[in-house]
Amino acid sequence: MPSLTGCLSAVFCHMEGQTRLAGKHHQYPLKIAKPFPLEDGQLGVYVMDASPGILAGDRYVMDWRVGEGAQVLITNQSYTKVHPARKSPNEEALPSSQIQTFALGRNSCVEYMPEPLMLYGDAVFESRTEVTMEEGAVLLFSDVVTPGRTLRGEVFRFEKYRSSFSVNYAGELIYSSRQQLEPGRRRADRLGSWGRYTHTGSLYVFSDRVDASFVEGLRQALEHGADTLRIEVPPEEDVPRPLDYGISQTYKHGLVLSAMGSRSYEIQGLLDLAWGFVRRELLGRPPLTIRK
């Protein structure tokens, strides 16, 4: 199957107290499903992928533009599966990529809560996300990465994973991060790397209302609620599977919640708990459960 470029762009506006999808364009295999209304004029959208996943050489490009006062929730239907970059060991690798840009207007809000990214054996994948925000805008951004089809014993068999994430607020770069993993060059289970962990997840929150007291409030909320998320380990396992996390305040107007564990749904549960706190304390909205 030849490689392809899947494109998607969407423009949202705020009219008469409601957020509306003002314009969209998509190219196979990406598509925006019919938007659905949420409370307080917020609009939800599903991103659909008609292919079995991101294949060797594929390139996905998504552009999101959210106008002043618009409130948008973006998610997808299932895991983003990244397939091997070559059919045989003798073939040259065909890297795949996903590039996203977000432009948030004044006093707008985007909650980007996709399903996890799954890296198959021999995958070579780059993820790049660039965000620009005007004053008063709010961004919640979730990211969960699984090391392969773990139920098949496929753990850290991918060839390379590279990601970058940057946020500009009112013309100033306030956050930038980069990560590159090559398990074949450096074992992921070594000290100083992933150690005993296999899965990772992050929740990024950017708003000019995020300060030290907000970060501390989130930390306390997770301390009180995280124990309910821990899954009991079967007795035949000698060492409990860990679920650990930390919260950092960024240089300006933001925080990052980072979690590491052994199961994606445990990490998702922790991020959902944090998401509920942020919705309640920052957006004045109740926690949200998305049916899929």
From TrEMBL:
Protein location: Cytoplasm
Alphabetical keyword list: Chaperone, Cytoplasm, Nickel insertion
Gene that this polypeptide is encoded by: ureD
Protein name in UniProt: Urease accessory protein UreD
Superkingdom in the source lineage: Bacteria
Keyword presence, Lipid biosynthesis: no
The keyword Repeat is assigned to this record: no
Pfam family, one: UreD
